[in-house]
Amino acid sequence: MNKKTLRQKYKEKRQKLSIEEIEEKSLAIANNLLQLNIWNKTYFHIFLPIVEQKEVDTEFILQILAGKDKEIVISKSDFATREMLHFLLTDNTKIVKNEYNIPEPVNGLPVPVEMIDVVFVPLLTYDKQGNRVGYGKGFYDKFLSQCKPDVIKIGLSFFEPEEQIDDVLETDVKLDFCVTGEKILQF
């Protein structure tokens, strides 16, 4: 299937999930992440979910990261340049939703992209080769291509992978892992 069809299919699938299902599946995803060999790393980039889009709730992962004393990095999107600016999440970080309902930091301590060790990547769906489909703006592909070569890219999904995404581009950055509530897939 192509990305446009998959985007529609998975937006619809997510809308059918109840708040309880999202919470339950998000907790299972966070618990599965504990099995990955990533906890010796320092800088973890995480997305704050768009609640209206019924994204994976990353609150449980944030609690794990804070409990393990990790440096937590969140981003702000610049829609003019399609760049993401990265900031350290601290107790003083003020979060505001942008026009697309994406929770973002208003300001904070900037974090250079080359410091980031692990990125939790939002997605609508993904395939068995580690390709992902997002919302189609290319923010994450651009960001991930700027990261150091050994950055660990982990998709988070409520669903099983598709067999194959037909229209993968040269600029699409593959995942290293995708974690669901049931399993960990490594690519």
From TrEMBL:
Catalytic activity: (6S)-5-formyl-5,6,7,8-tetrahydrofolate + ATP = (6R)-5,10-methenyltetrahydrofolate + ADP + phosphate
InterPro entries: FTHF_cligase (IPR002698), FTHF_cligase-like_sf (IPR024185), NagB/RpiA_transferase-like (IPR037171)
Domain of life, source organism: Bacteria
Keyword Transmembrane applies: no
Enzyme class: ligase
Keyword presence, rRNA-binding: no
Alphabetically ordered keywords of this record: ATP-binding, Magnesium, Metal-binding, Nucleotide-binding
Required cofactor names: Mg(2+)
Enzyme Commission designation: 6.3.3.2
Pfam families named among the record's database cross-references: 5-FTHF_cyc-lig
Annotated NCBIfam families: MTHFS_bact (TIGR02727)
Family named by the database record: Belongs to the 5-formyltetrahydrofolate cyclo-ligase family.
Name recorded for this polypeptide: 5-formyltetrahydrofolate cyclo-ligase
Origin organism lineage: Bacteria, Pseudomonadati, Bacteroidota, Flavobacteriia, Flavobacteriales
